[in-house]
Amino acid sequence: MIASLTGTVQYIATDRCIVDVSGVGYEVFWSTEGLSCLPEKGGEVFLHVHTNVREDAIILFGFGERVETEMFLTLKTVSGIGPKLALAVLSGMQVDVLCRAISTEDVKALTTISGVGKKTAERLCMELKDKVGDLQTATSELSGITPVDSGDRASLGDALSALVNLGYPENVAADALGQVKSRLGDEVFNSMKVEELIREGLRALA
User: Fold this and answer.
1) What's the pTM value of the predicted model, to 2 decimals?
2) Correct CATH for 66-133 of 3.90.1150.10, 1.10.340.30, 1.10.3720.10, 1.10.150.20
3) Residue 95: pLDDT above 90?
């Protein structure tokens, strides 16, 4: 299964993008918010991927952060919610807000999401109320990690996600990138490409 991709953005549509990885273009479906955060065509990107295998197709769904992947998989456990609707839910509400709405059983807020009616919203609350606590904690911890302040936030976020995908805790990976910035200085750090940030981050973690 494909769990992540690192490559260049080849094409961006309203609900998907194509990422070129060593000459191979991967079509990846993504949330509206996720697509808005992608770099322009030709820009480098790292993304988490969920591979959905059907009898007639293999479909890739992309996410900027691992917690989004976990939320997507959690949503799919709800009866009546498939991958397309799960992605629509993530398009309509950020993970921390979604977790809060589910944990407080805010059906009215959930029904503002396109494709989610009252019955679906009630199922989300009933089936996930006790499951979103860890995801809510993860999003809070992630939002509080700000040891570096790069001018290119997309590259920094991609590098941080790549290090986390390699198994390092969010705070440890972020601290390593902070060390890189302190060692090289703001100007050099802000001009570094994703692969350079990852390489220097791994060096700091060694």
Assistant:
1) 0.66
2) 1.10.150.20
3) no
